[in-house]
Write a structure and sequence with these properties.
- The structure is a homodimer.
- Chain A is mainly α and about 220 residues long.
- Chain A has 2 domains: about 60 residues, Arc Repressor Mutant, subunit A; about 140 residues, Up-down Bundle (Four Helix Bundle (Hemerythrin (Met), subunit A)).
- Chain A is about 70% helix and about 5% strand.
- Chain A is built from 9 helices and 3 strands.
- Chain A has a 3-stranded antiparallel sheet with strand order 1-3-2.
- In chain A, a hairpin with a 5-residue loop joins strand 2 and strand 3.
- In chain A, helix 8 packs antiparallel against helix 9.
- The first copy, chain A, is globular, with a radius of gyration of 19 Å.
- The N and C termini of chain A lie far apart (about 45 Å).
- Chains A and B meet through helix 3, helix 4 and helix 7 of A and helix 3, helix 4 and helix 7 of B.
- Chain A binds a DNA duplex (30 and 30 nucleotides) through helix 3.
DNA sequence: AGGTATTAAAATATCGACATTAGTCTCAAA
DNA sequence: TTTGAGACTAATGTCGATATTTTAATACCT
């Protein structure tokens, strides 16, 4: 029975708790509180926290413990700009290299996303929708075939999560997702038509629009 | 006196020891041996190792300890291809955004690299040259102005280090660096002339050539 | 006898408790 | 208001107990 060690378990939970905003930006992560919450000793905790430091989700001050990385407007802009460039790169390579299985995967993911648009209602499950949304975009970029590039992309996606959750909550039930939905359709059309320039422009815009909305919120 | 904790110290040393190849790919990292070598307890060690896992330099198998990540031909190709794309992206943005201070920095770094070409002799200090080489390329890309993009670039650079050291040792004293030197001159010219297309082609090739040499060695 | 399965023993990883050390806060005195 | 001493809080590291894996040895079967 593969029982992963406690450091791995606490890493997973703690990461979620930070990304979803349960531990707010700048929040001091006290050992005793975390020990209590996750029911582990200090050593697995320190291991997990060390890893989150490398992921740039947590800061460490020597001899003064850990705290959640602050969110700033400049970081927001930087992350989203970089994501736009990287995602655009992935889409471009995917269009060059993708095969029929890749195309089918896109169609399937787009269909699932479309079918569950109801999750975007005011009382819907935004996290569930975001899951499908993520899978849709992943279906497109995985055609690039580069593990390293996809890993870089995932790192940035996760680092953007705290900001994205703000955007999701802000838009919930305001019909602001309609534009988003339309962009997805256009993207699928451009990608399947292997229209490189159009697809790159669309994906870049698709990422930068939420960034501009968020800049007004911070 | 800013005395960083022992986990940070051992992280730095251990990372170097892996990147320089002192601990070979696939090597089992036994706690007792590391404890002895770095003169620390197991906990700081586990912290450092956890971080190296996130950096993808070591692997962890539950209850079976840590070992240095293996090197593979496919990873080599993937890392260098991805580096070529990312570096090209950085150079492109730098050309668009760079100012005069940026230009001056490039000229200065190029001059220092040129002046110390003697380090490439068979009996030279290759690590010292690589330091200058790295600084030269950094002088160019830092003009892109994106912290996130530069961080991604640095991650890939470090991940490529183990392969690069092979290349450096292979080329030492064989005059194979002459082409490399010429590429640097051409790159500086293209960048300062703000010739986007030429610069992107040059930097991409500059990264991919060592990759092709290395593919023959593995 | 050769090879495989079983069991015992050594080695190793993991985790929590405790002691040490550093940082912070309070309060009084200058 | 500033400064310094002491108490308190929190982070860090070492040690030891426990659980798991790996190695070795022995017994068993073909």
């Amino acid at each position: 029975m593969p029982q992963e060690n406690s450091a791995a378990k606490v890493l997973h939970h703690l990461k979620q708790d930070i990304l979803t905003g349960l531990f707010a930006a700048g929040h001091k992560l006290k050992m005793n509180a975390l020990k209590e919450r996750y029911q582990v000793g200090v050593n697995p905790l320190r291991e997990a926290l060390s890893q989150l430091v490398v992921m740039q989700l947590v800061q460490v001050q020597d001899q003064r413990g850990y705290r959640v990385c602050p969110v700033t407007q400049s970081e927001l802009v930087d992350i989203y700009d970089t994501r736009a460039h990287i995602e655009s790169l992935c889409v471009g390579l995917a269009i060059e290299r993708g095969d029929e299985v890749w195309e089918a995967g896109i169609v399937a993911a787009a269909y699932r996303l479309q079918s569950n648009a109801g999750l975007l209602q005011a009382d819907g499950d935004l996290q569930a929708w975001e899951q499908l949304h993520q899978q849709f975009h992943y279906a497109i970029v995985k055609g690039c075939g580069s593990e390293e590039l996809l890993r870089v992309r995932l790192d940035l996606y996760e680092k953007a999560s705290r900001y994205r959750n703000l955007w999701l909550r802000h838009n919930a039930g305001h019909g602001a997702f309609d534009v988003n939905q339309m962009e997805h359709e256009q993207l699928v059309t451009a990608v399947l038509a292997r229209d490189l320039e159009a697809a790159k422009k669309l994906i870049s815009k698709h990422i930068l629009v939420p960034s501009q909305v968020l800049q007004g919120l911070l």
